[in-house]
Amino acid sequence: MLLSPFTRCGLVKRKTRSCGQGLFTLFPIPKGELILTLQGEILTTDQLQEHHRALQVGESTWLASSGENLDDYINHSCEPNAGFVTGELSLFALREIAEGEEITWDYSTSMNETGWQMACLCGSKQCRKIIRPWKELSPQDRNRLFGISLSYLRNSCMIPDQRFPS
Question: Which among 23, 113, 137, 158 is least buried, having the fewest CB atoms inside 10 angstroms?
């Protein structure tokens, strides 16, 4: 059987109930396992174009693609099952992920653009209703998400005398 590029690594793009397309696993993924490393071209803010799907990776740098990568289909959740555990552009399973489950990560763990926001449709018990940039999250949310955020966020916007998990 010939597999498409979207199923070679046990992940498949398909329609979700409320968020358009999503990325789903074809096999169970154990807690702590690398799911995938995000791909694209590093661009500065002024190089971004309308057609790009972009993920903020620094104060003025972005990982951009035109939508052909697996990671372009990963949706947000306020209670994600994947995160940037190492602080780098690799998503790891935060808990055991069941076969057929959608892979999600919290967009606030990469975004830090002042004033950016979008409505949240995740429906989780911890849903914040609005996805905001890292620096606009409550101290409690930053503390909770610290260990699954990108390195550039871990090194900025820290709260003095606030202890973060490693």
Answer: 158
DSSP 122: -
Domain assignment present for residue 104? The answer is yes
Number of domains in the chain: 1
Note down the domain range covering 42.
11-154
pLDDT tens for the 166 residues of the chain, in order? 334 444 447 898 888 877 788 999 999 999 999 999 999 999 999 999 999 999 999 999 999 998 888 899 999 999 999 999 999 999 999 999 999 999 999 999 999 999 899 999 898 999 999 999 999 999 999 999 999 999 999 988 554 444 444 4
Report yes or no on whether pTM surpasses 0.90: no
Q: How far does Cα 130 stand from its chain's mean position?
A: 15
CATH code for position 79: 2.170.270.10
What is the Cα–Cα distance from 146 to 134, expressed in whole angstroms? 10
127 belongs to a structural domain: yes
